[in-house]
Amino acid sequence: MQIENNRVVSFHYSVTDGDGGAIDSSRGRDEPLHALVGHGGLIPGLEKALLGRSAGERFEVDVAPEDAYGPRRDAHFQRVPKKYFRDGERLRPGMTTMLALKEGGQRMVTVRKVGSSIIDVDLNHPLAGKALHFDVEIVAVREAQAEEIAHGHVHGPQGHEHA
Ligand code: ZN
Predict the structure, then answer these.
(1) CATH architecture of 7-69+128-158
(2) Terminal-residue alpha carbon distance, the chain
(3) Distance 110 CA to ligand 1 centre (A)
(4) Domain segments of the chain: what residues?
């Protein structure tokens, strides 16, 4: 079965930046990454490279910043009241954390400065502006369930668990 929209792909990956520095890897974890294709859960450049492939294939792909986490924007800072952070009391400059957005969803930000009630964050994703190199091994491909397609994410023990 080939990878296409509304199918669930399971794959192992290692990702490095343009200089070969390791960023993340699923290898060594028990489970590969499970992703629903065509619903924004994967960065565009990686998803494009996965389409049309099937289980057992291994490949490497270079992804430009525009097809990964976007270009890095200068002075993309925001002052946010500490109470909006789940983990506000333990945050220190240089740490990354998830910030809930008014319009829904959340975004990864980097802490720049911590005051008594305000935290200054850099809204750039930590990987913004970086070219990424992926080494991918496809483990399995299956049809998504109707409910997964409606929700836009993978269900099950390794996916989204609904309470
Ligand atoms: Zn769901």
Answers:
(1) Roll (3.10)
(2) 31
(3) 28
(4) 7-69+128-158, 77-122
